[in-house]
Amino acid sequence: MSMTEWQVEGLEFGVCNCAFGGPCQFEALPTEGHCHGFEVVHIEKGHFASVDLSGLNIALLYEWPGPVFEGQGAMQAVIDLRASEAQRNALECILHGGETEDAATHWWLFRAMSKTVYKTLYRRIDFSCDIEAHTARVVIPAVLVATGAPLKSPATVEKPSMQHQAAAGSEYAAAEMGAGSVQSEGPIRLDISNRYGQFNRLRHNGHGIIRR
Hints:
Elements: E1 6-16, E2 35-48, E3 51-52, E4 57-64, E5 73-80, H1 85-95, H2 106-112, E6 114-117, E7 121-123, E8 126-130, E9 135-140, E10 144-149, E11 162-165, E12 174-184, E13 191-205, E14 208-209
Parallel strand pairs: 5-6, 5-7
Antiparallel strand pairs: 1-2, 1-13, 2-3, 2-4, 4-5, 8-9, 9-10, 10-12, 11-12, 12-13, 13-14
């Protein structure tokens, strides 16, 4: 059975409760034994079949009681209030791992490892991000507020630039490491301050990361 052809490219910022660098990026166990966090993406260019997705924002909140691979997690998608019904349906499908090869994207993996999937929200998503400066700000009214900042050395107060390049994986080819904070309300409550932050360009389709 053929899949619907889709593609999403844009800016991504994410925060989780782990130490800087993110253990899961190196196949290690989470810092605190569990995994809580969120991500937001501004789609610069994208489509789902003939449905144009360019210019929209999406977000995903998640939590697992242990490592992601053990499952039993919960997730909730948030889709740009400006999206049409066709765009909403397309983005919900993508974020829930639909029309995607098994394990090809981190969205597919997150959905497969989530026992609970909360109702998708449609909200205004204010998102600004500067990957090179390692800064970001996200406001989703009545859902969450998040910020991203550069790493800062406790010894020298300098701002080291750290990048992770992934030859394999399901989320990015390369990402800038930073610090992130997020507070949320609703079924998935996040209260994370100055922990792992990630800034990157996301390029996905139904077969996984688009590598260039």
